[in-house]
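Morning - FE2/S2 (inorganic) cluster inputs below, output right after.
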Amino acid sequence: MTRKVAVFFSPDGRVAHVKRNTSLWEAAAQAGLGLKGTCGGAGTCKRCQVLVRDGPALEKGTGLPSGAGLVLACQTLAAGSVTVDIPQDSRLAEHKVLLGGEDVLTESDADLGRIYRLQPLCRKVRLTLAAPTPEGNMSDWSRLQAALRGETGCDTFRISLPDLRRLAETLRSGNWQVTATLVEAAGCADIVRLEPGHSAGPALGLAIDVGTTTVVVHLVDLETGLVLGKKGTYNKQARFGDDVITRIVYATEQENGLSQLQETVISVVNQLVTGLLAENGRHRRDVHLAVVAGNTTMIHLFLALPPAYIRLEPYIPLAGSPPPVRAAELGLAANPHAVILCLPAVASYVGGDIVAGALLSGIAQEQEVTLFIDIGTNGEMLLGNRDWLVAVACSAGPAFEGGGITFGMRAMQGAVERVAITPESYEVTVETIGGVRPLGLCGSGLIDCLAKLCAAGIINRAGQLQMDFATPRLRRGDDGPEFVLVWQEEAGGGKDIVLTGNDIKNLLRAKAAVYAGIRCLLKAAELEMEAVWKVLIAGGFGSHLNIRDAIAIGLLPDLPAEKFTFVGNAAVKGARLCLLSQEALSEAQALAKKITYLELSAGSDFMEEFVAALFLPHTDLSLFPSV
Amino acid sequence: MGLTGLEIYKLLPKTNTGDCGFPTCLAFAMAVAAGKINQEKCPHLSPEARETLEAAAAPPMRLVRIGPEQTPVLVGNETELFRHDKRFNNQCAIAVEVADTEDMPAFLQDFSALTFERVGQRYSVDLAALRCTSGDAGRFREAAVLLRNSAGKPLVLISEDVSIMAAALPVLVGDRPLLCAATPQNYRDMTELAQKNGCPLVVRAKSLTELSDLTEKIVRLGHRELLLDSGSRETAAVLADLTQLRRAAVRKRYQPFAYPAMAFASATEPLAEIVQSIVFLSKYASLIVLKARQPAQVLPLLTWRANLYSDPQKPIQVEPKVVAVGAVSPASPVYVTTNFSLTFFIVESEVANSKIPAYILPVNTEGTSVLTSWAAGKLTGAAIYKALQENGLESRVNHKTLVLPGYVAVLSGSTQEATGWKVLVGPREASGIAKFARENFR
Amino acid sequence: MVFMPIVEKYRSKVQEVVLGATRAQGGTRDFTVTVGGEAALPFLHYEGQIPHRPLIGMEIWDTAPADWPACFAPYFADSFRDPAVWAQRCVSGYGADLVVLHLKSADPDLLDTSPEHCAAVVSKVLNAVGCPLVVLGCGKPEKDNLVLPAVAEAAAGENLLLGLAEQNNYKSLTAAAIVYKHTLIAQSPIDINICKQLNILITEMNLPAGRIVIDPTTAALGYGLEYGYSIMERVRIGALQGDAMLSMPMIGNIGAEVWRTREATAPAEENPGWGEQHDRGILWEATTAAALLQAGLDIVVLRHPEAVRLIRQNITELMGGRGV
Ligand code: SF4
Ligand code: FES
């Protein structure tokens, strides 16, 4: 056996026991400390900097003792027991996903879609059975089924073998009174729990959104339909790569990669669930059902289904509509028999999260054409009405979530969300979330910033910084031209906050991908933009989105502001609908079959639309008359 | 005009049964609209829907076969005016003309050299055209037999004299030569001759109006294997007529012109004939007859034909061959990129800009960019290894280090393993190459 | 039944651009030429007016080209060393409408000549010929940003056609064209969107659209010519449909592309199946040009006098005596 060494992390005081010559990055992950990193530990993103305070550390590759000062955790190996400092900059912050809030266009919760009948997938049935007699001598199991049939209208029932083995005792100890917790779907019911007597215990359910970047859980009382609590955090799979492709590669090519990814996401969900249960004084054995929405890759990883072929032409998922599984099979913090349902996907790049969004938005009920846009690491768009629905997906990159941007960050305290630039003097004022000193920019802030830079002429329509402008804010940095947004004296991190030429390119590409996707959708449907009756926007920019700015940079189509609605996290809300309404669940299943997926890489149309959109607001200025 | 995806969708049952092999009716409708699949693949079509779809799917221009049943030259069936809208369907046929008074063996020798190998493709002229200038039926027939036996290509027979044509045909049974031409004067007999022998026929008039009338008359006689010749011979007039014929067929579905059109090069000098033919090829001829027959003259024409009829949807690619930028030496660095032309050219200009001579190795990713090809598993360690091998990089440079685009840093390990080369991760953006080169290779 | 020609209705026409300036106009040219103005697709005279025929420019260098194949020697061997003589030969010997002077010597990897030297060469060529002049930099942006403004200044008022402005390098050249009254070539890499974007960027600096000629970039026959062809066709259709930012006349630097290819230069021995190099080279250039003329090209830049002759004949036939 290889000797293990200990890696101590300060100031957290955590320790990881790892094989000798494990990288500090992996050790930190083991210790439950997320490090930043977008290159999957390849040593290129330079975000995982740590300080080795003590002990023998080696440089990966050369095997030489690592230098003093900050080193890359992923490129540094623990040759013996070491002590390591993780600077604040390198940490994956504990993150509060914004779940509400008010501003320009605030995420709206109610009034979306049709209201479905409250008819939870899971309920408790309290039965009183007739005791057996010489004539009424059917078996215990038949007796139970007969009674359930009368109560539910279901025909077939399934029970776990352990519960069946205990059945005789359960019925008799409750004196032929029994409480069955059922998960019903399509005329078939699963008995997930059997309790003697008439139990008053609650039936709880989870609505789970497994996003590439964030994970959100809602804890729901299935009998009342009330949301008991909401929690969200980063998807810690980010340490294996920012985007789905990197994670697919990791799952496919690394030994144990798939199980590592699955364990990571399950532990993230469990952490949220345990927190929610504790805060509400509930117990995990009362959680009988979970509905999970996620993109196709995330669902594969959640279930540990090999995702390799999602990425390769012709992009085939292993399962688009995976069968229900039990909590115990996944290690989920719930009653071990709890049923876990994953919402069905349309295609490899249009997942159950979009189906959930479609459900929530009621797009398939309207006569008029609705456009639904989910802007995340992948941009997915859905267009249609009750007769037809078409979806596309494009890789927008994580720019609007703050990824790949020098001073990008997620929407949390200290993130710049509003920017103003005075003409002539080029003075900048910013507003941050929480009103504190600025640390970086979130998606809303980046959109605003781009719009204001263009309006002030500091960048031209191609996004190039105009270095001949007389302001000290324009300068040449390590990565080429950059614009200083906040001087270090005013910044929270003690450094100038800048937007570089490359940052602008990344933002342009992200917005161009989204807009090009929208154009391709409209082209496929042979519709003009004006034919779109309303636009629903989902995504994680922040708590709000300034529609004017988003139009000014050509991210969103130039339509009257009243046509837009910001729905925030549509996936988790759609999952919640399914939790509470059988009707909603079957509607979601029907939707997944009904949506037609359009593969953008199949034609060069997308490329052309993309290049056309790499301009502020767009090469075809007539598409943006109001800008 | 074809129906759009949504229009077709409205005619389908909208039940999403999947029996057509597509997940939804709309997906199927879009594939039908794009011409990728036949509407018959849906077993649930109503009779009315079937009828509407069939009518819409009928091509605006007839497909005409010249030559023997088994190996015909196909012309026509075009649906577009501009190649950027959709790929042109059947390459314009090139016929090389010879008079029956000429030295036939000399012609045959030249003619046999008009097949070319270029960039792994084979280009060839399609037809031998025999013009009767002798006025002698026997001589014409003799020459036709000689061509049939030795040219190895289907024939075009040029004479407006029905008796001369009639004399040649009995020796060409089953060869289905293109008869050129029926005119307002001879059309009854010429059409009968063509029909009897199962031959395609050129309809020739002196104006478009006359051509329209004549075509209708011939169609009424029951012959439809037709090519159109407006009779114009001056470059500008031919261009105008060919454009009108194509527009009438494609845009107006004008029935008398729903046939492929042809043109004759009229310049006296071979080089000028080629330039003139470029005009006709670009703008809508489905068959060109010319006299130029030297390989150096015909190759440019056939090359443009291959280019013009290629698929416009295919991304612009560069050849996946290593390129040396600047005065390279065996110590020069090697940059890996993809063969998507935009990507390649940006890298090339930035490498040049760095002023440090280097090799650029464009890996064949079917013309996709770095991130796209990586995402789709086309840019892999194995693909890079293959490119290194095929381009003999080992013998060009005296080191074993390659530069990988920063966006695919994750490929470093697998590339190192697959190639045995050391991997340097380059910048993500090409704009960083100059700085990167200065820091690493100076 | 009388067949009625199908005539497209267009909303607009191609921008007219004047090249050169006479003494009265502040320059020294004997005459000016006008390109553009088409109200129809190429050479479809029944559809709309085509007031100007396409122009032929002949490419000359300010230094003897080392890599031009031997087939040029009979025409230019004695003039390669002197751009003034070379220019005269093109105009009076071979009938070029325009001289296209390529300032190759400025290339830092070649002779690295100074901006002043380049300006002097331009003056010399201007003195030698009376036609309008096209001046191209060496192709290295950093150097061209020094050379071209110096040339623009020295030839102020001549209304040169100056190039190349590109998306990443258009500002200094545009500024020079505005100040010293020249016309600009805006080059984009076979991409209609970038072509349009560059025109927007340049016109937003206040250079009028009538002072821009676009170079959508072309490849040689067999090397992706069809992509350039389709882009030009689309640019032209865009112009006719009223897109002002695509409405400028187009120039194609054909000779330089063609004479790099093996098909144009390889001797017959190398590839016997391809036939003699003489006709093949000339036709490779003429074919490329003839195809692009069908896509809407307005200024054809060629090298070989025989290709020039063939294309002139082609243009004459296609114009049918119309246009100036
Ligand atoms: S077979 Fe017909 S009905 Fe069934 S999905 Fe295909 S198109 Fe629709
Ligand atoms: S550099 Fe260490 S994770 Fe990216």
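Note: The pocket of FE2/S2 (inorganic) cluster (ligand 2) is lined by residues A 25, 37, 39, 41, 43-48, 72-74 (CB under 6 Å).

O.
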